[in-house]
Design brief:
Elements (H helix, E strand, L loop, with lengths): L1 H109 L1
């Protein structure tokens, strides 16, 4: 009877050891899975930051291009305004000369 009881205890002990090993294996698998998940989150966060940084750099470049275009347009408009002012001044000078000539002709006719 002792040997049968000893065999039962030993068999039960094996099942206890097997159960403990199974529990440890499940814990190890959960630990590995959580480590992989944390690594994936870090990579995703890192790539997300990289994506945002690249997007920010792209927007900065676009803003520089827009500022450059505005500057070029402003310069072109200033040049055109200066040309119009010069043209206006030239026209005024010619009108003044024509007025003087007309005045001189009237003066000559009146004599």
């Amino acid at each position: 009877m002792k040997s049968a009881l000893l065999e039962d205890i030993t068999a039960d002990g094996d099942y206890i050891v097997l159960g403990a090993c199974a529990i440890l294996l499940c814990c190890a698998a959960a630990l590995v899975a959580s480590c992989l998940l944390i690594g994936q989150v870090r990579r995703t966060s890192s790539s997300g930051v990289t994506d945002l940084t690249q997007e920010l750099e792209h927007l900065h470049k676009l803003r520089k291009i827009q500022e450059e275009r505005r500057s070029q347009k402003r310069e072109a408009l200033e040049n055109e305004l200066n040309e119009l002012k010069q043209f206006s001044s030239d026209v005024k000078t010619q009108v003044d000369m024509l007025a003087k000539l007309a005045s001189q002709r009237r003066t000559k006719k009146d004599r």
